[in-house]
TrEMBL record:
PANTHER family: PROTEIN YJDM, PROTEIN YJDM-RELATED. InterPro entries: YjdM (IPR004624), YjdM_C (IPR013988), YjdM_N (IPR013987). Pfam families: YjdM, Zn_Ribbon_YjdM. This is Alkylphosphonate utilization protein. It comes from the Bacteria. Signal peptide: none annotated. NCBIfam families: phnA. Transmembrane segments: none annotated. Residues 42-111 form the Protein YjdM C-terminal domain. Belongs to the YjdM family. Residues 5-30 form the Protein YjdM N-terminal domain.
Length: 112
């Protein structure tokens, strides 16, 4: 069985979980070869790489154009879809209960 050292802490005690590799010492998760593309990857407020299907949590209250309500901090958003940034910074497509289909900026969410 092939093993890999953790790219973050260099631990040799890593294991494979589906397509991901996991380090039990520092809790780092990665996809082999993805380190090369990390500069282009969509990252959350903590620097974690986001992928299609991830669940995220909003980290601050967000005003919504055309609505009197705001998306409150702590709102969980399930199964996001990453999209090409169209120049306005919105790179996540999602559906939020009570608001419907929305676009969010990855800098205002954290991976849950």
């Amino acid at each position: 069985m092939e093993t890999m050292n953790c790219p973050k802490c260099q631990s040799e005690y890593t294991y494979q979980d589906g397509a991901l590799w996991v380090c039990p010492e520092c809790a780092h998760e990665w996809v082999p070869g993805a380190e090369l593309a990390q500069d282009d990857a969509v990252k959350d407020v903590n620097g974690n790489i986001l992928v299609d299907g991830d669940d995220v949590v909003v980290v601050k209250d967000l005003k919504v154009k055309g609505s009197k309500q705001a998306i409150k901090q702590g709102t969980k958003v399930k199964s996001i879809r990453l999209v090409e940034d169209s120049g306005d910074g919105h790179n996540i497509d999602c559906k939020i209960d009570g608001f419907g289909a929305m676009k969010l900026k990855s800098e205002f969410v954290k991976k849950s």
